[in-house]
Design a protein that fits this description.
Blueprint lengths: L1 E3 L5 E4 L1 H10 L5 E3 L3 E2 L5 E3 L7 H7 L12 E3 L5 H13 L6 H4 L3 H8 L6 H13 L1 H22 L3 H13 L13 H4 L5 H7 L2 H12 L4 H8 L21 H15 L7 H9 L7 H11 L11 H25 L6 H24 L11 H26 L4 H15 L4
Antiparallel strand pairs: 1-2, 3-6, 4-5
Helix pairs in contact: 1-6, 3-7, 5-8, 6-7, 7-8, 7-13, 8-12, 10-18, 11-12, 12-13, 13-14, 14-15, 14-18, 16-17, 16-18, 16-19, 17-18, 18-19
Length: about 425
């Protein structure tokens, strides 16, 4: 809810989170827990006074003596009991794709969730999310449940670790409250809008800073929140961590996030989550991905949405895109290019190489796909096509602002990644 300065301090009210809180205050009782002062000692808002649009006006561009997050409380917001209710509803959902994975562990998940501690700052932000961004809140509950289930499998049922994992899952996207809702994951993932991606990539770092500076959650949880979009092979964000640079809990959250992202597609099942976790070798911890793959094998087989001829044509286009993309990069990017463009090209080479490895290991080439393999091939094709779109965003973000001739070269390079898939 605050802008983050170069020193990492939360100083002024962030308009996006404040807007969500004000929207939530229309249906919830959100009040000032303390008097709110600016950095000069001028009182802006009285203790016990409900928040309103007047607060937004008074906070505009004002540096505060204390972060606003620590000065507000949602009296009738999210509680442990309401969280348990949301989890119970998820576990009882018959039509949800996650049900076969979660239900065998329902009792353990509910027991561990009862021990989740809601720090007042987190309680405020979750309450605002529940009212103003219900899709984001539902995603947080799903991540909490999936993280807990993976930890049950990984830890042998150690309750402390399960509760820790569920807490991290619940909080993993808390940084999204600080970016405009149209730049959130659900929207940014469905578009090639580079500005959305530019906004989106900072939210893990914001979440980690918030938990570190404004709450007393463990460093393990805060670090994992900062790592939930990282990949073991260095292809994630915001810091492109590799292997042991990621914490064990961060690896778990990265697996959770990738699985849930795959399940956002209409009609997706656990099979699609399983494919997303293994389509590119080395991205995710195979010991964490294994339980999801095992659960997928117990549900009804996938059904291809495309006809076999259409799918074969699309697979051929994917094959062409992956085969020609590397040579296109070398052709379009001159040796004397700027450091920014060279960096974008090098990163693109690396990421495309990873996709080609996944494609080659899948063994699902267009000429060999029959009716029995069609659904699996379709899922692989969809996952790799989404990765190509992701690579375009990463390349453009890495390159930044370029001179016109280099911008043209970047456009051609990026077009080569996705046009063959159109």
């Amino acid at each position: 809810m605050s802008q983050i300065s170069a020193t990492g301090a939360f100083r002024t009210a962030n308009p996006h989170a404040l807007a969500a809180i004000l929207e939530a205050s229309e249906t919830k009782s959100i009040i000032a827990a303390d008097d709110i002062f600016d950095i000069s000692g001028i009182k802006l808002w009285a203790r016990d006074q409900p928040v309103s649009q007047d607060l937004q006006r008074k906070l505009m561009d004002r540096a505060l003596s204390k972060p606003l997050e620590t000065c507000l409380v949602a009296e009738d917001g999210v509680t442990t009991q309401s969280l348990l209710k949301s989890l119970h509803e998820l576990l009882q959902s018959e039509g949800g794709a996650l049900a076969p994975f979660l239900k065998p562990y329902a009792a353990t998940l509910l027991k561990a969730a009862a021990n989740i501690r809601l720090h007042p700052v987190v309680q405020l932000l979750l309450s605002a999310s529940e009212s103003a961004r219900p899709q984001a809140y539902a995603h947080a509950v799903e991540a909490m449940a999936v993280a807990g289930t993976l930890m049950i499998r990984a830890s042998g049922g150690e309750e402390r670790l399960i509760t820790q994992a569920m807490t991290a899952g619940l909080l993993h996207d808390v940084g999204e409250m600080y970016i405009a809702p149209e730049h959130g994951e659900a929207d940014a993932a469905a578009t090639l809008n580079v500005e959305s991606y530019r906004q989106l990539v900072v939210h893990p770092h914001i979440g980690q800073l918030l938990l570190t500076q404004l709450t007393d959650y463990s460093k393990d949880i805060a670090r994992a929140v900062g790592e939930h979009h990282e990949h073991l092979d260095g292809s994630g964000y915001p810091h492109m961590l590799r292997g042991e640079q990621m914490s064990p809990l961060g690896r778990l959250l990265a697996t959770v996030e990738a699985a849930l992202a795959a399940l956002r597609m209409p009609g997706a099942t656990l099979h699609h989550a399983s494919v997303a976790l293994r389509v590119v070798p080395g991205e995710f911890d195979e010991h964490l991905a294994g339980p999801l793959a095992a659960a997928a094998r117990k549900v009804a087989p996938m059904q291809a949405k495309r006809s076999l001829p259409d799918l074969s044509r699309e697979l051929a286009r994917l094959d062409t895109a992956l085969q020609t993309s590397m040579s296109r990069i070398d052709t379009l990017i001159p040796a004397e290019a700027s450091d920014s463009l060279q960096k974008a090209a090098s990163l693109t080479r690396f990421l495309v190489h990873k996709l080609r490895s996944g494609w080659n290991e899948s063994g699902l080439w267009a000429s060999q796909v029959g009716a029995e393999e069609a659904a699996e091939a379709e899922a692989v094709q969809d996952a790799l096509r989404a990765r190509l779109q992701e690579i375009e965003r990463v390349a453009r973000l890495t390159a930044g602002t370029l001179e016109p001739d280099e911008a043209d070269a970047l456009d051609l390079m990026c077009a080569g990644l996705v046009e063959d898939m159109a």
